[in-house]
Here is the input.
Amino acid sequence: MAALDIDKISELTKPLIKRIPQTARGIDLHKRIGDLIEEADISLRVDLKEILDSFLINMIKINASDIDIGGPGCSGKVWYRVFGDKSPLKMEKKIPILDTDFLLHNVLLSSQREKLIEDKNLDFSYSIRLNKETSQRFRADMYFDLNHLGLNMRKVDNTIRPFKSLGVHSEVAKAVSLKYYKYGLTLVTGITGSGKSSTLDTIIDANNRTVDAHIVIIASPVELIHDPIRSVVRHREVGTDVMSFKDGAIQALRQDPDIIVIGELRDPETIMTALEITDSGHKTFGTLHTSSAMESIERILGEMPSEEQNRVRSRLADVLTCVISQKLIPSLDGKRVLAKEVLLANSSVRAAIRNNNVGEIYQMLMEGKERGMYTMEQDLKRLYDDGKISKESALNYANNKPKMLQLMSEVNY
Here is the structure.
């Protein structure tokens, strides 16, 4: 099937490629490709879309989380990530690089293409229809790779995990619920591909099912769509529905929200906005690309100018409710399992943040089991003791390897 599709790509793009001057390079090349795509017959565009969609359908069949295509880095192949490992699709032929440029340009709106050319990168959402009742959404990132287009798409899990599957303590469950905490900042953190979005969706769904409220989600791009159950749920995509995370958060204050979800706290302005809207009495959720609770706090403070850090430190101490830092660990059954570090902001944690003693928080996590707090190392040890992960994986994914070794050497009676 792959070889047939590749032949069809070349058949479709050959007349268009002939119209590109051989001297066209760089941005000029991509502007010309964009113009040719916009002028092309609708049937050609539909055929190109069906080819890309066929690779995505195959992605679903093999249970892959990601697909990569285009640019010299893919070497004319289609790559899939399955249970953490990335490998190419077995293909009889390679896809010519200009063919993939046309294939990728074809999925863009003209406004998206303009932003891609201007910013050299574009985040967007994409969906395909699987049947009359269901569709599959993807989070997409398109970028330049040595003057050609590269694309990564991540499959958005259509299934929301039940809240109980997070395995958190009842105090943590209360902390993330509007029913018990009407305001406060909760951070869900982890590296790319650690399952942050899935955890955040589970928390949003739990609130949607249990409280009568208004939830505003600001994301880039919007991934899973939450149908209103007991709450009004707004989805605002950056670049489509709102210009930035900061703008979306500020505008949300005029929309009578109870919960504001900021997809990514990616810059000082957005971080300050999140602190301010939480301080004004709202329940706020956000994500960071950090691996531990302490690193998350230090990242927020480190993003601020030195003259602002004391003020931000005091505000963060006032509004922080919970930090969930997570990783997906290779499991012994060949899949992946969730490991997490959980911090609840009690009076001792708040004092440590306010007094610039963030380093003391690790010991508080170690000793906070009764309230549902624990370190990444303690959770990795639990997974190892339960026979779910290997000792090697526990050590490799630990944030504090000396502490992990110490925990591994302890004898449980």
